Amino acid sequence: PPEPSDTQAMAELRSRSKRSKDPGDSVARPDGDDGKDKNVKDESNREVFPVYENSPATTTAGIFVIAAVFSVYVATMYPTVPGGDSGELIVAGCTAGLAHPPGYPLFTMLAILFHNIPFGSPAWRVNLLSVFLSTGCAWFQFHSVVLWEESLSKDRGGKGGRRMWEWTVSVWAGVLTSLLMAFCPLLWMYSIQAEVFAMNNFFVSLFLYLTVRFYIFRETRIAFLGSLAIGLGLSNQHSLIFYALPLVLFVFITGFSVLCSPKNLLILVASGLVGLSPYVYLPLAGRQAAFGAWGELDTVDGFLTHFLRKEYGTFRLYSGNENSKIGEQLWEALFLYVKNFTFESTLVIGPFFFAVGLSRVVVDCFSSRRLNTAGFAFTCSFIFYMVVFHCLSNLPLDQPLYFGVHMRFWMQGHIIAFMLLGVGAAKIWRFVGSMRNVAAAITTIALCGLQVGLHYRAMDQSQNRFVYRYGLMHIENLPKNAILIVKGDVITNSIRYLQRCEGFRPDVQHLDQSMMTYEWFVKKQARHFRHIKFPNEVYNPYKPNGYSMATFLQKNAMNPKYPAFLCGGWYHDEIPAEMGGGIPGFRTWNVGPCERIRPASEVVSVSTWIKEAANMTPNFEPPPEDKYPEGTWEYVTNVDYWAAKHKIPYSLLMWAIENKDNSDALVESKRMYDELLKIHPKPPDFLYKNAGIVYGRLREPGNHCKMIKCFSLFLLNTLEVPSQTKDILKIIKDYVNFDKQMKQSKAKSDCEEDVASVARRAYMFYKGKNPKKKKAKDLNSASL
Fold first, then answer.
1. How confident is the model at residue 46 (pLDDT cuts 50, 70, 90)?
2. φ, ψ at 54 (rounded to 5°)
3. Least confident of 161-175, 260-274, 328-342, 480-494
4. What value does the CA radius of gyration of the chain take, rounded to a whole number of Å?
């Protein structure tokens, strides 16, 4: 017999509900068809949504989403340690340690569990944790959209028959939403490395899924699970609270009669506290105080300081901008989010589908004559989170690296934005009529395929070992028992990973200058440094219990058995910058990626210096700039590598000038500059300038022409007008006039034509009255 129509099925279910003899089990819910409240049993509610609850179509689509996301993520996952905080989180998993505030105890405990996987590198295992969490996020995202779309639409059919196997518009909307979001660059990148954002996305999507279910079914156990999910989510990242507050309010409004009994309220509170129980890990790990572990968490004050992120500023991202005003960059940040959502995350079509989905929320509110709909709750939560977060965020948006950190917190906003996109797409597909499922399938496959195809190369990190090799570059050639003083996250975390997770060079004593500035560092971490003596309690010369770096070096950098090195520069120069900076009583000698720290009174021959530098030459293949632009940690490793290659010849040049143009230092500096100009893909302006100075001071045949060429390229590439520009321009002008005279007399010039050509171009370029008015296209066209 033919299946009953949707309207007949709904009418039969409502009639059955009204005849129910147990009104105590029924709860009020808004009806999607006539806008009136009906008393519908939970059991009947499930029958209203058979396509979602029981259909093989939904099950197979969910499996497809999981398989697609998991397989692509595993194929593109980092094979070893990534940049940023990932190294620190991986080390916390390796050592059962403590990460930076607020500690991320749930992520750390799961990282410890995944660290015991018997295959793969230690970093790969913890990276895999993020893949599992992000795959779960996609699954919950899929089911949330399917269920929400079922609640908005009127095409719910009865049980059995063809519809149970049919991939309906609701199912395709869930597939589109989950895959399009999973494969947008922002979520993709943080799903294939050990980062807490994957776990945060997991709990946000889980909570949204439970919210939709509670709106439909009104089951108290769903609310209890939601309370547990919030607690667990807050055990990972505090920003979840900005999502949870509006949704918790919505749940209490819609389910007041069900939840607001003393028993249920007690269970809700208990569930939330159980969710927060992972924080018990912090004081337990604080007693152990593994190497690199943060804080003094086995005390009440230390625990609260860490939990509330007081060292960074509670609910602030950045401790280096305390004077920023709340909300001063709100509109700029929101504009940048819309730009990212449109052009980088949703293939330009996102705002259109989002607007349609938002209109469905508005229509749903008006048709039901009430605001306590799931769509209204989601919209309010999205707005609340985006406004509050961007008011509190104080990261400088004009700096690419910090802007990249800021962007990570857009992922929470993306989850609801993509859900609105999905229900908007479903509304558009329904206009097609009988071909709506075909239109939904074609659109979903095309958009998701295009999303993967456009971003796969950029997101594929399966061969990315640059941060791992960057750490090796700094410690593999150090002398035995060296003391290494560092500054910077990517240096610190990569070295810490190599030492603590892979057991590489444990003899090197690795000190992070920023951690030395905390009161708890000496108490908790001093026992890990065998040959190091701390003069006082904290690295801060302005505190009564503090010490200066000069005092620290006097106790630890004088013994040749434990040579001291500096990587990343000093945390604080104790000699004024106008006097050259540095630490009084000590001098640093560039020997590659690091600098050798020696007493200022120690006499070092050029040959000794050159030999030491040759032994520490970095073995590193820099990452390609076209794949890793400014704002990525790989770009930082690229910049640092070329800076390390340049520091030695530059230091030799400066030392030669101080010592009456020492020929040995100049010859070695020239040799290094010759090599550097050959291998550098895009030599910066200062490289040309300094190479030109070396060629000019070392009077050898052919060096004059090399000097002219380097000075000319410096003038063509520099974006500033430094003090030397005037003198360099005079040299080029004199050469151009000389070359002109030689040609007029038909005499042979002392330099090749390419040198004369670039010199003439540089001279004409600067011949105008205002050399600052240079166009970018002119700057980019200069080449060696």
1. low
2. -125, -5
3. 161-175
4. 32
Residue 733 near residue 763, CB atoms below 8 Å: yes
Nearest CA-CA partner of 345 in 403, 413, 397: 413
What does each C-alpha distance from 500 to 90, 572, 604 come to in angstroms?
Answer: 10, 27, 34
CA of residue 379 relative to chain centroid, distance: 26
Q: 618: closest CA among 588, 589, 651, 594? A: 594
**Residue 86 has which token pair?**
């990932």
* Burial class of residue 672 in the structure, from the number of CB atoms within 10 Å of its CB (0-12 exposed, 13-18 middle, 19+ buried): buried
Q: Annotate 74-86 with DSSP letters as a single string.
A: HHH--SS--STTH
SS3 37: strand
The 10s digit of each residue's pLDDT in 327-363 is 788 999 999 999 999 999 999 999 999 999 999 999 8
Query: For residues 89 and 194, is the Cβ–Cβ distance under 8 A?
Result: yes
Nearest C-alpha neighbor of 360 from the set 424, 447, 271: 424
- Listed in sequence order, the residues at least 6 apart from 678 whose beta carbon sits closer than 8 Å to its beta carbon are none
Q: What are the residue ranges of helices labelled H in 460-571?
A: 466-475, 489-500, 513-516, 521-525, 549-556
Judged by phi (left if over 0) then psi (alpha if -120 to 50, else beta), residue 627 lies in alpha
- C-beta of residue 482 within 8 angstroms of C-beta of residue 508: yes
Kind of pairing between the strands at 538-539 and 546-547: parallel
What's the rounded mean pLDDT across residues 514-534?
94
pLDDT in tens, 95-118: 999 999 999 999 999 999 999 999
Q: End-to-end CA distance of the chain: give it in Å, rounded.
A: 82
- d(CA 135, CA 137) in angstroms, rounded, equals 5
